[in-house]
Design a protein that fits this description.
Layout: H1 9-48, H2 54-86, H3 88-108, H4 112-115, H5 118-148, H6 154-182, H7 185-192, H8 194-212, H9 218-223, H10 238-243, H11 245-265, H12 269-275, H13 281-309, H14 312-334, H15 339-357, H16 360-366, H17 373-389, H18 392-401, H19 406-425, H20 436-459
Helix pairs in contact: 1-2, 1-3, 1-5, 1-6, 1-7, 1-8, 2-3, 2-5, 2-17, 3-5, 3-8, 5-6, 5-16, 5-17, 6-13, 6-16, 11-15, 11-17, 11-19, 12-13, 13-15, 14-15, 14-19, 16-17, 18-19
């Protein structure tokens, strides 16, 4: 019986499309559930805490939101390890399962009037699960999308991580806008806020089924085949990650500026337009929605550009633009008086940020060998994100409350400057071989190149 024929180009394209859809849709649902908590917190805050002080209710709800960020490094470690030991597919399936359970817990949590603080405890447990899930999802999807893409299209493939992440935000925002126009405030506060979480749980079940059909990446199958001298018991461990601590440090440094800029111009933007520019909430929400939609469209084009010219030019362009441009852009946004002026400035900022968001998943995955790739992406990214991305809004509000709001603009610029130094000093990762097959192809290409010059050398 002859060996099975290798897959045809059509089969390969179908496999890559399914990988792109499965990885991206799951990421969309994960981030929808993550952001919908913040979007609807104003409506469910009084359901879980005594209603004597609305500000205290919101602060308690925001505190539980922040706990999710603290759990992201834990999720990055646990699920990154799982992805390196048991496969990218199994980790992706596990993350979406955890998010589905978390969303369902929030949807059915009893109110303070029904069960006292037990409802808040359920909310806290759900947010802990969400934090763990999203911490693992970033690394698992970044690794999977990068490894599953054709070598000359890894920038394009990985760019869909932020496409799906942004679409998750837009979906949550769109549902909020729809419900605000179809339900009264009393209905939203009574039971309406549970609907988006029920939808999130349902979306996650659909994605679970889709991800079960995904194929494992070739790079991981090679690593787990046992054909090398590596000890399989060390895959995805902190011991192996420590051997690549320089790359882990690079991930933290290159994430620093990007995550602060991203959260500044996405989640904080609406609050800034309302609180500092004095813009109506409806107008500010529309500005944010439109800017994010166009931002999502930009990602694949920037990813394709990086596949042609390399990753570093885009990263350096982002860091220079953010370092130099944050102060004037944020200052102008603070005095924006119309929808169009605010939209134009927001888009300018997000075009700059695209230099980071479109390719950062590929860059991080390309820094590590297969045996520790998911953990190497997950843990340092989650730590940097928890320390700087998750706190960006709080830092901004702290400077504002202290009467020095413009200092936050310099803070964002300073973070971008640290990343700029990193981008300038680090190598470009575009041509990195992610699997043994790619490394062997490189070696074969070099072998063919050398004999071509040999006759001329001999003639001399």
């Amino acid at each position: 019986m002859s060996a099975s024929a290798p897959p045809s180009p059509a089969d390969e394209r179908k496999k890559r499309r399914l990988a792109l859809i499965g990885g991206s849709l799951g990421n969309l649902v994960e981030w929808y559930d993550w952001f919908v908590y913040a979007s609807f917190a104003i409506y469910f805050a009084d359901s879980f805490f005594p209603n004597d002080n609305p500000t205290t209710q919101l602060m308690n709800t925001a505190g539980i939101f922040a706990v999710g960020f603290l759990m992201r490094p834990v999720g990055g470690w646990v699920l990154g390890r799982a992805a390196d030991r048991h496969g990218r597919k199994s980790a992706l399936t596990l993350t979406v399962t955890m998010m589905s359970v978390a969303a369902l817990l929030i949807a059915v949590a009893p109110t303070y009037g029904q069960a006292g603080y037990f409802g808040a405890l359920v909310l806290l447990l759900a947010r802990l699960l969400q934090g763990m899930s999203i911490g693992g999802e970033y690394a698992a999807s970044a690794t999977y999308l990068t490894e599953a893409s054709a070598r000359n299209r890894r920038g394009l493939g990985s760019s869909f991580q932020y496409v799906s992440m942004t679409c998750g935000q837009l979906l949550g925002l769109g549902i909020l806008i729809t419900m605000q126009h179809t339900l009264t405030t009393a209905q939203l506060e009574s039971w309406g806020w549970r609907i988006p979480f029920l939808l999130g749980a349902l979306f996650a079940v659909v994605v679970f089924w889709l991800r079960r059909r995904l194929q494992e990446t070739d790079a991981f199958k090679e690593e787990s085949s046992g054909d090398d001298d590596h000890d399989d018991s060390t895959r995805g461990t902190l011991k192996v990650l420590w051997q690549h601590r320089r790359q882990a440090g690079l991930v933290m440094a290159l994430t620093l500026g990007g995550t602060v800029a991203y959260y500044t111009y996405t989640t904080y933007l609406t609050k800034y337009l309302v609180g500092s520019a004095g813009m109506p909430k409806t107008t500010a929400t529309l500005v944010s929605f439109t800017a994010l939609a166009l931002f999502a469209v930009l990602q694949p084009f920037a990813g394709m550009l990086s596949d042609r010219i390399g990753r570093r030019p885009l990263l350096i362009t982002f860091a220079v633009g953010c370092t130099v441009g944050t102060y004037p852009i944020m200052t102008a946004l603070g005095s924006a008086s119309s929808y169009w002026s605010a939209l134009g400035l927001s888009l300018l900022a997000l075009v700059i940020v695209t230099g980071y968001t479109s390719i950062n998943a590929a860059v991080k995955a390309e820094l590590f060998p297969t045996r520790v790739r998911a953990l190497g992406v997950a843990l340092p990214y989650a730590i940097a994100n928890a320390l700087f991305g998750g706190t960006a809004e709080y830092v901004a509000l702290w400077f504002k409350s202290s009467g020095h709001e413009s200092m936050f603009f310099w803070y964002v610029s300073g973070c971008a400057l640290v990343s700029l130094v990193t981008y300038v000093l680090m190598p470009d990762t575009r041509n990195t071989a992610l699997s043994r097959a790619e490394a062997e192809a490189d070696a074969a290409a070099e072998g063919k190149a050398r004999p071509a010059t040999a006759p001329a050398a001999a003639a001399r």
